[in-house]
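Z., the sequence and structure:
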Amino acid sequence: MPDKSTEALVVQKTQFFRAENAPGWLDWFPLSGFVTMLVLGTALPLYTDEIGWRFQERAGFTPGVDPMFSDTCGPNTLARPPIFMMPARLFSATVNGWLDAPIFVRFEGVACALLWLALIWRLCSVASRTGQNRSLPVRALILAPLGIGILPLLMVMSRPEQPLIIGTVAAITLALRYRQREEAGISRSIWTAVTWIVFIAVLCLSYHLKGVLYAVVLCTCLLFCSRDLATLTPRLIGIGLIVALSIISLQYWEGRFLCPNDPVLAAKLAKENIAALLANGGGLLGAIGEAARGVLPFDYILLAAPKPEPMSFWLPAGLVSEPVAIIFQAVLIAVWTSLVAASVWNLARFVKGRKCNALREPKVPIAVCLFGLIAIWGASQLNKNVYEAAHILPMLAVACLLCLTLPHENGPLSRIGTKAARLFVAVAAFSQLAILATHGPALWNASHATTYLAGQPYSVPISGYDERKADIVKAMHAAGMPLDRPLKRPLVDDLTYLALQDSILPVHRLGVLSDWNGSIDDPVHYLLSRGSDGIVMGCGYLPEAMAAVASRAGDICAVSAARLVALQTHQPQPR
């Protein structure tokens, strides 16, 4: 017969594996609305930043080198990533080369958003096991605010922040799960947790500078995932590896913001973030003032509201009026402020009651790290682009989730929380209906466009790529450009780049003809000085002189090196 201690252990393990805080209709409703918005996002045209980041992380295509839009900054613009970043580069090159159509880029973004959503749903279950009152509908409180406004559309953008937020939520879930198993007396090797979290850190550090901040959260996960002194050495080894890789990564990413050979581009980069401002000679006091204004997340919350004229027209203009945009902004501020205030209140109440023992609960230091990450990144950003909301607000939601699931008694949080959840869900439902009505038709039309989008100069359609790819070949053939080998330094745009990914150090139109051209005042001279094979891009992007000597097939124009030489000497060749 088993003794009482064995029976108690069996009961404890049974309770551990039993599902808690089972989702009800109040949880499923915002989930279904969020998924609906992500499905709507499949029709979103590709924004130039989605291609731009693929363009700048090309070490898997051009062995060992990550370029920028052009090379006027000097050696920094042809950076060699650290060896630990190469697996991510090779993986990206393989996938991007195999799935090279715009629609696959969009599907990749939607798939990543759905994966993050599945992980946050799982995290709600794991976080709710440690004493959270079951009457509080945490999933509804978290998912409903995320579904308000255009945030779901931003979250389907295929950008490097997606691996960061996916990996971080996975690491937090893993850390909480390991701690719960330990407290339930269920043994599991700490090396498994260490290996996975270090792997996630390598992934985050490989894809973006923000990975350095997220690495702090991952180190916190490792530090607090166990209380057993026997596991301290493996955890410290993992933390040491992450710190070492973060230092190497920071040096790499910081170097890419320097632009010693192009003062015009250096000045533009200095307006993007505090690091670039200081690196390019900005004043310390001015940087401190800018940082202080960006600590609170209100700017990012406002970015989730639709606007009459979206940034760089990543959406068509005029989908909503100014009064409607103001209503969305007010609603978003009210919902997110109340959510964050309730979360911080519960965190403060828990810390006040437990004092130093509060650190025995891993959700406390992890939540504090997430709030710190958001504050630091907000302070560092001078120019807050709309897509930044797609990683700040999801991480803010995770921090709130951890705070709301801290152990508490039946009280105001449970009573008010349930009413707030119902209100949030209703607001999210109205928001989603409004977005479907105002944005749905425009996105549907854009998804069926087979030419470059009028009025959206920094976006390309997700349909008609096979026809455009055929036009690229026809235009290149007519221009006499080589078809039997990869092109050398061709000038491309977002659409033609996908077809010419195997080129040697391609140059993006933004770095020569548009916003990021720096001191390039003679594009023809620049291309010829770099030994370029010519230009392959949408005709609408070409200056008049280049368009006059281009071979055209549909919307695609091609200009060979020979025609560039003739253009430079003012002797256009007949087509």
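The beta strands are 46-47, 459-460, 491-492, 507-508, 534-538, 551-553, 556-560. The first strand starts at residue 46 and ends at 47.

Let me know what you think.
H.
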